[in-house]
Structures are given as C-alpha cells and as structure tokens.
Amino acid sequence: MGPQILKRFYSCTIESILTGCITAWYGNCLASDRKALQRVVRTAQYITGAKLPAIQDLYTRRCQRKALKIVKDSSHPSHRLFSLLPHGKRYRSAKSRSKRLLNSFYPQAVKLYYAEKQRRREELESRGQQRLTELRRLMAEQAKSDKERVQFCEEVLLQRRE
C-alpha cells in the first residue's frame, strides 16, 4: 500500500481513537501516558513512512479550535466560562491552587488562545519588518538612480552652456 493510503487510514482510525475527547483528558494526563501515546504515533509514522503530527500538536490545535467555537457561539453552555475582563481585551483565566483545574480545558484553552494570538502577531510583525527592509532597499536603489539622473541632467546643461 502507498504511504498516502496508510496515512489516511491512520488519520481516520488510529488518530481518531487516540484523540477522542482529547481536550477533556490530555491536560491532566501523566507524562508517562503522554510518552506512551507519542510512541504509538512514532510507530505509525514508521509504518506509514510519512510525517505525522505529535499528540501535543493535535491537542493544541483542537483546544484552540474548540475555544474559538465556544467564544463565537453565545448559546453554547460553556460560553459564560469565556468571559472578558473589564477592559474587554483579554479573557478571564480561572485562579486555582490545584494543578488539576489549571490543566483542565478552560484555563488551557485561554492560554493556548493567547499563545496563538501572540504567534500571529509576531508573524505579522516579522512580515512587516521584512517588507520595511525591502522598501528601504528599493528606496536606496531609487535614490541612487535619481542621483545618477540628476548628474546626467547637470552634465547636459553644462554642455549646452558651453
């Protein structure tokens, strides 16, 4: 069988089983359990011969997607858990003394939501810096050609005066 078929089989069966309700249980999963799950992914990667996403990446992506859906849908039962702070810019994050609550979906989703927002902001800033560098280079080239044009015009004027 080809690697594309094997990868599709992995995505449709094994990955769906591994990640069933991952947003509910992965946050409080033990490190040994995470390693065991990642071992399954690495084995599947070896068998398929294709690069497969890590369990942590799947968890992150699904948490972000689920959080966005909850935030956008005001009729969702969990919508009230994503309440904005008084200034209206950031979402409230639950305070807790226990790691169990801090590792649950809602605090993790808020944290991952802002991490993604920060990554996008940095990406835009990087693109802006690259564009600015490119514009500076173009302006320097234009200034050089303008300077050459002015010198040429001055030479032509001097020749006409003579």
What does this 3D model show about the protein?
The chain is mostly helical and 162 residues long. The chain has one domain. Helix content is 72%, strand content 0%. The protein has 6 helices and no strands. It has helices at 3-18, 22-25, 31-48, 55-72, 99-102, 105-161. Helix 1 (3-18) runs antiparallel to helix 3 and helix 4 packs across helix 6 (105-161). The chain is elongated and about 90 Å long.
Mean pLDDT over the full residue set: 87
SS field, number of helical segments? 6
Q: Low-confidence stretches at least 5 residues in length (pLDDT < 50)? A: none
In whole angstroms, the N-to-C terminal distance is 85 Å
Structural class: mainly alpha
Shape: elongated
Helix content: over 70%
Q: What's the β-strand tally?
A: 0
What is the total domain count?
Answer: 1
H/E element sequence: HHHHHH
Proportion of beta-strand residues:
under 5%
- Rg calculated over all Cα atoms: 28 Å
Sheet having the most strands: none
